[in-house]
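For the sake of clarity, the format in which proteins appear in this thesis is described at this point. The record quoted next illustrates the convention:

___
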Amino acid sequence: MPPRFDPLHKWLGIPASEQPPHAYRLLGIAPLEEDADVIANAADQRMLFIKSLSSGPNATIGEGLLNQIAAARLSLLNPTKKAAYDKALRNYLAGQKSASAQRSAPPALDAGALFGQFTLFERIGGDMLGPIFKAKSRTDGDLVSLKILPPAVAKNDRLVKRFEREVSLMGKLRHPNVVGGMKVGAQDGIHFLVLEYVDGVDLAEILNRVGPPEVAKTVGYMMQAAQGLQYLHENKVYHRNVSPDNLLVDRGGVVKVANLMMAHIVEASYLDDNANALTRTGEMLGTVDYMAPEQATDASTIDDRADIYSLGCTMFHMLAGRPPYSGKNMMDKLMAHRDAPIPSLMEIRPEVSKGLDRVVNRMLAKKRAERQQSMNEVIAALKPFATNGRKPGFWSRFTRQ
């Protein structure tokens, strides 16, 4: 197995849960790939991408990562070395799979299962920190969202710290457009977070089931999301992962910002002084389709304008039916966010007005100084194009049993 090179791998979006990454993961290709051309091309693309970002304070980080990619390339293109490496990798992956199965077996987190004082219903979401279930408290009968930290994840100290940070944030921030936290606890050594239950769907599900909503309704959704994000920013918290998956809409048409796992706190008013050490220099966090150009190189230095960019990408997706940029892989998309011209919504969806197109275009400016400078400014710019987004009968197709 290759040596650790944390935090260099963060430039390639390889999460801490997958460390140390094997050579194939480092090059962004399938494990045990046999095609030498695929391996060589992948390595060349990685190198071009890293070189494009390796300047100024990033030069040392980039040089180290280029060395790792070059070593992986040489190893996988040498038949003798590749055969030995593949044999070791097969054994390693088999051992990981077996260990993971053993760790994850208990308890059975399925619909209908009992977990402490809660009865679990269907799974309604989740992320790298574990699944989220719709659940019912057997103590008071309240419906809640229950986020459970699996035993396997609990062995990763850094992920546990992110979970604890999310717990602290959710418990202290209160806004009608932000999902609230209620309490934390542990059951048989398994940590969990009790969240406000939002009886509705996320915007990604609306897109998948129905397609792009009406223009004015979409703008109304985005204004509500901006209000929640403005509240977070006023409390010196930047979300860093705004996307359709992390914006929920309840049955009354109220939008709520969810999932603060990746949030960056610029003042330690909620946590200890080491809160931001979880985000290291050179680390990339977020969802590539919605990520601001500056966030791809160093997530520790972003501010509210990165969330403005991500909300702009989300609005573009909601109106156009696709994210603003596409690509064959993650690197193509990152480069497009940085270099490609901003696409016109009007050309994709003619009912989008020139004025609204200008607002979204500014949200997607490559340089953050050229974007709106606060969510309040975004809200004011969107207001002429919005309705409250509520429509009788709209929720019938989303009813959960």
Observations:
- The longest helix spans residues 79-104.
- DSSP finds 14 helices and eleven strands in the chain.
- The chain has a mean pLDDT of 78.
